[in-house]
Amino acid sequence: MSAALRIAREEWRLLRRDRVAVLGLTLLLLLTAVAAFTSWEQRRTTDAQRARHQAQVDHEFEAQPDRHPHRMVHYGHFVFRPLNPLAAFDSGVDAYTGHTFFLEGHRQNSANFGDVRQASLLLRFGQLTPAFVLQVLAPLLLIFVGHGVLARERESGTLRILLAQGVRPRQIMAGKLLALSGVAALVLLPALLALIWIGAATPAPVSLALLLAVGYGLWLLLWTVGIVGLSAWFVRGRDALVALLAVWALSVVLVPRLAPELIASSLALPTRFETDIAVARDLAALGDSHDPNDPYFADFKKKVLAQYGVSKVEDLPVNYKGLLGMEGERLTSALFERYANASFERQDLQLRRVDRFALLSPVIALRRLSMAAAGTDLHNYRRFVERAEHHRYRLVQELNRLQAEKLSFAGDRSSRDSRISHAHWHDLAEFRYQGAPPGEALRRAAPAAGVLLLWLLALAGLLMPATRRLGRITR
Questions:
Q1: Which of 20, 170, 234, 290 has the most Cβ atoms closer than 10 angstroms to its Cβ?
Q2: Over 70: is that where the pLDDT of 415 sits?
Q3: pLDDT at 113 exceeding the cut of 80
């Protein structure tokens, strides 16, 4: 048996005899298991509830009686955002973004009913998920377990004895790394079992589940290397503990909280009222389709008459009111899409600036990787918003087309009297959303994974001077 393995075995034996370490490890393992089960159950219940609501509103839309198509435009429709299977591992931004869209003509509504707005303020501090446990609590346990792996040997004098017996410093370092790595692997085990469970119970992509496992494995390995390396620089274990707790508080708590606030203050998003005022101003500048003297729509009328070769709208083979509605919807939808894209681009710029702080706090990179793999990041939310908007536009324009083709201009005087068959509503509002493909998520997570690897390489490089110091300080 090698010297490193013997040292690791002896460290594990000491840990088994340490009641505090055993209790802390047991509690963390139970907490991870409970977090996985509760997150999975909440995700399953929430997704089933949204699917039930979606089926209900689809049925109610199709069950509408004979109506005027424009009445159906204003009747509107609801779509609900389905949850990604891996959202049970990392809920990401899902609790903050809302999940219900009301689709109607002439405007693009925002998502409603975010979980944070419906729950207590405690939810803002983080949900109990396997990702939260591994990101925040697991490093804390490794610190308490491993802060004295080398400082303790120096304090007790056993380090000098080991060196005198011919054990090399790098063998001591390797043994301590192996011992703490075993603890980290045990901490990671419940989360890996949870990923296997989620993958077996849902159509979760294997590649993304593997990415989560590798990402969190790198995270715990990073802390393992850092803890052992820092422990080698201190003579007393309590000094190493204080230093490691300070590193944990700065990198896991303070910087990830402070960075978004700093970026938001320097690159603020427009408020809801500012956006509404700007949209209303631009809508007024587009023109009024109800005003026959409006310059834009007067010109549109001339183009339509010239296209069909007639001199007045009554002679058109289609209902001019339906064409007018289609053109108005095209203009307003383009305006709403422009504002939505500007908002998302600004948020994406904020995130890219926050990513720079990953050089100070690797947990920022880990969160980016975790949310991208779990399908709960801003990109996936934006994808759903854009798909919902495309569905809204198609739905409204199809109803406008029905008004243009199924109703005559002369007979289209009142939405109460002019109606078409309810058979036209069937399958019109059906919405099916598909999340981003796994390859896209892997590409977005690659930079964050690269940052974690750079952190690991940097800390591994610091082990070399720490190992040399380990041999010099005891002589």
A1: 234
A2: no
A3: no
Question: Do 254 and 170 contact (CB within 8 A), yes or no?
Answer: no
pTM of the model: 0.89
What mean pLDDT do residues 360-374 have? 95
Q: Copy the structure tokens of residue 374.
A: 């779990």
Tallying the residues shown for the chain, one arrives at 475
Beta-strand pair 77-80/100-103: antiparallel
Q: Does the pLDDT of residue 93 top 70, yes or no? A: yes
* pLDDT (mean) for 32-41: 90
Alpha carbons 237 and 242: distance in angstroms, whole number: 9
Residue 371, classified by CB atoms within 10 Å of its CB into exposed (0-12), middle (13-18) or buried (19+), is buried
